[in-house]
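Second attempt. The first submission of Ubiquitin 3 binding protein But2 C-terminal domain-containing protein had a stray character pasted in from the spreadsheet, which I only caught after the job came back as garbage. Lesson logged: always re-copy from the clean sequence file. Corrected sequence (137 aa) follows.
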Amino acid sequence: MFSAITIAFGLIASVSAVAIPTPQAPTVFADVTFSLTNDITGANAKATIPGNGVDVSFEHLFLGTSIAPNNEIYATSIQFVTLPPNVSSSCIFVIEGREVVINDKQTFGDIDGNPWAAIPQKLNGLTINCRTDAVVV
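This time the job returned cleanly.
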């Protein structure tokens, strides 16, 4: 009789342990670092943002840097500086209806859309969105 009660309580305890939710750690996405370059002036600056898929304004990232003299952000290209290793990562923004995309396979992007010329493009008022499947634990 004693062993039957012990077994019954053991089963109830094991079922209860499974049913109790455990707290989840918050998801923290890995960071990506990219740079903007103005090939006409030689200016460049880098920024690091989380790869969480949230839009971030270029003003927030680059005002006060060499790429934004007089608070106007002009660039001809974008390039990844660092990426989380062995994961899918990408950044995207839209300028004049064109998507500019860099990712872990194509780490450089021509902002002006003309591969034969360096034409600085104004990035004020635009946002960039970076996404990665790497999660920091």
